[in-house]
Amino acid sequence: MKIQLLGAEDIPAFSKHLHQCLLENTDPALSVYAPFLKEEVRSVEVIEKKCRESWNRPLHEKGWERVWAMMDQGQMLGHVDLNSGRMTTELHRTYLGMAILNPNRGKGIGRKLLNHAVEWAKAQPSLAWLDLYVFQHNHAAIHLYREAGFQEVFRRDDAYRMRGEKIADLAMTLRLRS
Known about the structure:
CATH superfamily: Gcn5-related N-acetyltransferase (GNAT)
Radius of gyration: 16 Å
Number of strands: 7
Order of helices and strands: EHHEEEHEHEE
CATH architecture: 3-Layer(aba) Sandwich
CATH class: Alpha Beta
Helix content: 25-40%
Strand content: 25-35%
Shape: globular
CATH topology: Aminopeptidase
C-alpha cells in the first residue's frame, strides 16, 4: 500500500471511487458519515468536472483542492482531500474530507492518510488552520482526529435528518501555525 497524490490522469478513477463512497453512505446497512441522500449523490461526470477545475489551482486562489489516495495494486482503498473555502479571505484555512471504502475500514488507512495530509498542510506556509466536520456518532473518526491534535470547536445539534435520525455535526480544527 502507498499514498499517492492524485493528478489529472487519476480523475476518472477517483471520480468513480468518490461516487462509490457516497453511494455506500446511502446503504441502510452501513453507518451514515456524509449528509447526502441517494438522489443527491453527484454523478461521476459532475465529480470529474469539479476535479478538473480544482486540482490544478494554486493555493493562493479560492477553489483549490488536493487529493491523496491509499493505493493497493492499482485500487483506491480510501482518500483524503484538502480544499479551500469559497472566499479569498479564508485562504489561510483548509478543509479536510476523508472517506475509506467500507471493506477497508479499521485497518489504519485513515490514520495514514490523515497524517499525510496534516504534514503536507504544515509544509504550506500560507496555511494556518485545518478544519473538518464529522458526525457526532462517528466515534472512530472523532478519536482519530483528536489523536492528531484536532480540537472540537462547536457542535451543531440536529444538523441533518437522515434515516429517521437527528444527526449532530461536530466542527473540529487543528492549528498549523500562528
